[in-house]
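My current task is to audit a protein record that another person submitted. What it holds is a sequence and that sequence's fold in token form. Thanks in advance; the entry in question is below.
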Amino acid sequence: MRRRPILGAAAAALAAVAVAAVLAAPPRTVILDPGVWSPTSPWVTVPGGLHVHTTASDGSGTLDEVTSAAAAAGLAFVIVTDHADGTGVAGSEYRSGVLSIGGVEISSRDGHVLALGAGRAPYPLGGDSRDVVEDVERLGGMTIAAHPDSPKPELAWQDPDVPTDGIEWVNLDSEWRKTPWWRAALAVLVYAARPAETVSSLIRRPDDLLARWDEALGRRPVVALGAVDAHGHVGLFDQGDPARTRLFALPLPSYESMFDALKLYAVLEGPLTGEPAADGRAILDALRAGRVYTGVDGLATPARFEFVARTSDGVVPMGASIREGPDAELVVRTVAPEGAEVVVFRDGAEIERSAEHEVTLAAPAAGVYRVEVRWAPDGAPVPWILSNAIRIGPAAATAAAEGPAPATAQRSLRQAEPEERLYPRGGIGAWALEHDEFSGAAIDEIETAERTALAYRFALATDTGDPPWTALVRGLPARFTGASVLRFEARADATMRVSVQVRAGERRWQRSVYLDQDTRVFMLPLSEFRPVDAASAADAITEATSLLFVVDTGNTAPGTAGIVFLERIQLIVPES
């Protein structure tokens, strides 16, 4: 007799959930009339998707399934960035009529970074963010700070002082993670009916992140990119094993819904040719140059947009610089849904807001300009379209991009005192070797008519269960101070990275250096060495008693053997 009340209560609860789901359903995507759009610029705009994962890492779809979904969403390209270390980067190829461009997502100590267009790395990339960015640049690639506002600290890009080429201003995976649980639960309920709209509805304008981007633009060119970060699922738990991540997950949002929700529009100098390598270069060249904008197409589609600068010299797109003058003008054009506003920024401050969808700024003052087309279909204004920047006036972009010279290059250094000379003073006998149980190391001296060098030979073990490592070690003098500069010259028999460390008991601080067959002079301020772990407080480095040159799996594959040559190692105190 009790079953009927229970069933009635259950039915009422389900009805309430259904009503809540209907009320929570986002508005349907507004379909704009593409026939009213006629581009005035000579460039060709193609839509794509950035930051995609496949079964090669923690995604649930194969590359064929990903490109098939991209084709269904009307994309011309996808940039696949599976988690890896850069030693096996894929190229470009067409599948299902969609250009797949191979990139990689690299984990650093300061968060994740995308590397696009880089050559194959000669050693595993990782470690400090500055080292990863330096290595990718050396390999000819572009770096993008991935999900910088992720609520997970290990994912978010932590070091804004490291000059990446680009930044993800929105990341759909992070939007799911940032959404309150109750709102995410409602989104799951309505997802099946309106998948792309549901994903788009989670996006909120990232005020702090955009302010950080504006501040960075004042110093150097930085490209803002919208990223889908598509996996084909949402993990229920955090697992390191990609197979478990896919197993314990909800099979949503799909690749197609993510591609429908957010598109990256690359502005090309000409149409795609169908030749994968050339087309891949054209897409990446557009991204590097800032000839790209983001459209939240789950709100309204297609996201037609132009932002150009005109002078008597001609017309230039986003990412370019022009001179200041009375003949200069900025032109914004779009086909937008009713109620959308064009918002123009100069140097991070809003200077123009218009309900008109064609805006011209005559003789604009010097500065860095960008545009948002904002719309509030559910009451919360978001950038439906976000442009990249155009610079007007003397931007000094090249000098700004390179940043200031290292601090040690700006200070004079006195000659090292005898007790601060670590090699050749004391010779080979002052040095010792340490390594794990299965790895090996040796040391000898190589003498020529001009110099003497330490030859540090290492051979990392293969798969032993624990990461293999070797180290060359010497005691530090009593005069050691954290304000000292470690100077040495080094090369290696093959391209690699070595971790230069100082140690106090179990506490360690480190700085990685790049080596190849050419001898380089290194000047490393010990105050810039970073703690290896949480127990090694930064200010305790003055207690260090040992210097180490370490080869481990941070940047060297197990089973690798090689030689590091070291000369003229000394501590120097900068003159005040």
The chain is about 20% helix and 35% strand.
